[in-house]
Structures are given as structure tokens and as C-alpha cells.
Amino acid sequence: MDITLTAGDGHAFTAYLCGPEDARAGIVVLPEIFGINAHIRQMADRFAAQGYRAICPSLFDRAPGGGTGLQLDYDPAGRDHGLALRKGIRDEEALLDIEACAAALRGQAVRLVTGYCWGGYLSWRTACLSGSFAAASCWYGGGIVRHCHDTPRMPVQMHFGGKDPSIPMADVEAIQAAQPDLPVHVYPEAGHAFGREGTAAHHPASAALAWERTLAFFAGHAA
Fold it and tell me: Is 101 a catalytic residue?
């Protein structure tokens, strides 16, 4: 269901919430530049099916012209719109919304964070700046390399496609060099957004393995 949350600066925004209220662990699922569309809601539903309470913030609610609960299509118009909206949102503002989601999971003893593309990047920023979560799983987060020398405050894993034209392997190698103790998984045959089912970007074998690794990683930190 869609709910309304309020961030620490008074900003009200939409979020998608699912999963059992009495779940021990909750997960904040951060979207791509396409908003809280069907794919991101599907990922939240998948976590809910595993027994987690899951919540997805509509980060674009902050952007001028972002509307409420924006959901964009995977086409050039949707991509261009999403990229333009993202430019209007500072990381610090997105972090306020992420913290509000963590607060909404106050019924859960443990909180986790994951995300895809822009959300993967913000998962890393959250891991380094927030004390509200127990672990983070970052899927193909473009831009992480700019902050790869930051110090995470929680366990983190990352997932990258070996054939991702938007995240060159030089960036992945720089992240690995800066964070030698952090598990950085590379899927050689996958490109960008390989976890996005129903699109040409989807690489089923890589997505399935990354999902298994994410579940195992979170299970190990949700006890």
C-alpha cells in the first residue's frame, strides 16, 4: 500500500509499504531513476515474501515537477525525465527520506537497506552516513566510485555487471582497491540493470545469483 511519510525537514513524501507488520527485520528498497514503479515495487514484494517488512520511498517527490509517487517507464522519455529530476535532489536530502523510512520500520528490530542504479549509489551513501541500518546491499550503483574512499558504518556488499557501459570495470576495480575487505561481486555476462525483470537489460542467471547472495547477506545480519 502507499503511505505518506514526513522527513526530518518537514518534507512529506509517498512510500510503498508491504510485508508483515511483525517481521523481525525491515528493508528500505531504494529506486532507480524511474521512481517507485512496478519493478521496484516487485522487488519490495519479493523481500516481503521472504518475511521482511519492506518500504520504498518516492525520492522524486522532492524534485520540482516530480509529482507524488512518480512512476516512469523504461523508455528514452522516462530516462531523460528521471535524470533531470535526479539532478534536483542532493544526497543529503535523499538521506532525510531514507531516515524517515528507517523510522517507519520502528516495529522491526533490525533494518537493512538496498537499492538499484541510483538507489544502489544511495545505499552506499547511506552505509557511510547513517547509523540506522545493520547492513547494505548495493546493486549496480553508478557514482559509488566518487565516494569509494568513504568509511562504511555497517557491512556492505556490492553487485556490478561486467558488461555495464555506464559503470566501467576501472571504476569497479577502484572500489575494490579502496575497500579490499568489502565483497564486490562482478557478473561477467551482465550489463547495467541486470536485475530488472521484463526488460532487455535483465540477465536472469546473474540476477538470480545476486538475489541469492543478497538474501544470504541480509540473513547473516538480521539475527
Answer: no
| Residue 164 annotated as catalytic | yes
Query: How confident is the model over 162-171, as a mean pLDDT?
Result: 96
pTM of the model: 0.96
C-alpha cell at 102: 528507517
Is 192 catalytic? The answer is yes
Cβ count within 10 A of residue 52: 26
- Rounded to whole angstroms, the Cα distance separating 172 from 176 reads 6
Q: Which of 18, 56, 101, 117 is catalytic?
A: 117
> Residue 22, Cβ neighbours under 10 Å: how many?
9
